[in-house]
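Q: Predict the assembly, please.
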Amino acid sequence: EVQLLESGGGLVQPGGSLRLSCAASGFTFSDFSLAWVRQAPGKGLEWVSAIGGSGGGPQYADSVKGRFTISRDNSKNTLSLQMNSLRAEDTAVYYCAKCSGSCYSGAFDFWGQGTLVTVSS
Amino acid sequence: DIQLTQSPSFLSASVGDRVTITCRASQGISSYLAWYQQKPEKAPKLLIYAASTLQSGVPSRFSGSGSGPEFTLTISSLQPEDFATYYCQQLNSYPLTFGGGTKVEIK
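A: Predicted assembly structure:
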């Protein structure tokens, strides 16, 4: 059974940093691209970032480019999102998602339960 | 960036109704379109990928069609558990954008 478990969310001040993690199980981790998707309170879904199975080809939404860094540790089956220079508009539930192969031309076939990030003073 | 416009944004329907949701892409996306269902306080769930392929385990009352720029998600006979918000997503090119969502509520 595929499982994705996010952690690391919390309350952070504007300008601060936070690192999210996603622990994966139930599939051959390095064979699949992974992504982060966020959802601000009461709003729709926003794709944030994606990374290939080997860790190559990271992609970012313009809204987070230069501030967020996606990475993965295939030896620990863990996906991470380092978030720096956080802004109030980054407040959202952050979901980790597995792609069905590649994210590009595929789909997000499994999702974690999400972790809430609140940016506020 | 490719924009996805979903319509309607809100839909009121009864159990047993046939429901159709439309997603229009601002550029060509081939058939790289997925549909997701999200219930309150829950993660999204994949329903349809490649515009018309039903994800394993999803009931056959859900179907997808279209090949650009307009795609549709159809629920042939709405069930109580189908009341949720539905999103389309294009996976043709980065950034991977989502539509604004369609909330399906009980009439």
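Chain B touches chain A at residues 1, 32, 34, 36, 38, 43-46, 49-50, 55, 87, 89, 91-101 (CB under 8 Å). Chain B has a mean pLDDT of 96.
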